[in-house]
Automatic annotation (TrEMBL):
Compartments where found: Cell membrane; Membrane
GO biological process: FtsZ-dependent cytokinesis
Major subcellular site: membrane
Superkingdom assignment: Bacteria
Membrane topology value: Single-pass type II membrane protein
Protein function: Cell division protein that may be involved in stabilizing or promoting the assembly of the division complex.
Organism per entry: Lactobacillus ultunensis DSM 16047
Keyword GTP-binding tagged: no
HAMAP family according to UniProt: DivIB (MF_00912)
Record's protein name: Cell division protein DivIB
Length: 288
């Protein structure tokens, strides 16, 4: 019988064959340990952060509570009562009367008035038209400072031997001023016995160009007609105009005065012409 050939025998190394599987298992176990360590570290860090956040919140609550208690304690104590009131920014107005009108008392609390500025402004401006608004500041611990913001002065109304401010809201100030208290570059309104004519002339004056208004020294209500307005200029000229048309004609003034010269009457009421002032006119308008 023919003998069958032997098949070659392949030797297998179990270690070599199992090595990839074992390595994979080992890597998985190692990664698992690492992941567990990371998770543990993350949880620990999260817990620490939560504890810190809780401490911060508790600290903030305690701080706010302590400040609130301290503030409340100060508010109800006599130290929070107003000791002095200082008024600034109202040189022409009587300080004592302003405080009296404001009804601020020594028993009042300083902080109450810091939140009542609008009411205080309304109260004082109702009594004194010169006052536009009032700002309240804290000076020392219990000193109240009233900062008075006055209205812009358009001119002055001659009232007998005294003068009153004409304000930018067309109202008249309460305080009677002597000549030394009058701002000299502002115009004087004279002869105005009727409030209606004064309001109309002030309104017209406010509508004129600033360059022209700066040249006006005096406005007179001693006119021949209700529609007429008389302006005495700082250069010694007198301008007569119509209430309706003056605003459109004032731009002729510079050219006419350059031709007319000093101490001229420039009539812009009907047309536009000029002539020298008479002696009686100079006396009537206070021009020398």
């Amino acid at each position: 019988m023919r003998q069958m050939a032997k098949e070659p025998v392949t030797k297998i190394d179990p270690k070599k064959e199992l090595s990839p599987y074992l390595n994979h298992e080992f890597n998985q176990q190692r990664n698992s340990r690492k992941n567990k360590a990371k998770i543990s570290a993350s949880l620990s860090s999260l817990q620490k952060e939560r504890r810190r956040s809780l401490r911060r919140r508790l600290g903030l609550i305690m701080t706010v509570s302590i400040l609130a208690i301290a503030g409340l304690g100060f508010y109800i104590s006599p130290m929070a009562n107003i000791s002095t009131v200082k008024v600034i920014g109202a040189s022409d107005l009587p300080t004592k009367e302003i405080i009296k009108v404001s009804k601020i008392k020594a028993s009042d609390k300083v902080f109450d008035y810091l939140f009542q500025q609008k009411d205080l402004s309304k109260k004082l401006s109702k009594k004194y038209p010169e006052i536009k608004s009032v700002q309240v500041h804290l000076g020392h611990i219990n000193q109240l400072i009233l900062q008075i913001n006055e209205r812009k002065v358009v001119g002055y109304l001659k009232d007998g031997d005294s003068y009153r401010k004409i304000l930018d809201n067309e109202k008249i100030g309460n305080k009677a001023l002597v000549w030394s208290e009058v701002t000299q570059n502002k115009p004087i309104f004279v002869g105005y016995n009727k409030s209606n004519s004064l309001k109309e002339d002030v309104k017209l004056f406010n509508s004129l160009p600033e360059s022209f208004k700066d040249q006006v020294k005096l406005l007179s209500d001693n006119t021949k007609r209700n529609s007429q307005i008389v302006l005495v200029m700082k250069d010694g000229n007198v301008v007569i105009g119509n209430m309706i048309t003056l605003k459109q004609k004032v731009h002729y003034y510079k050219a006419i005065k350059n031709k007319a010269g000093k101490h001229s009457l420039i009539d812009l009421e009907i047309g536009a012409f000029s002539r020298p002032l008479t002696s009686s006119e100079k006396k009537a308008y206070g021009i020398s």
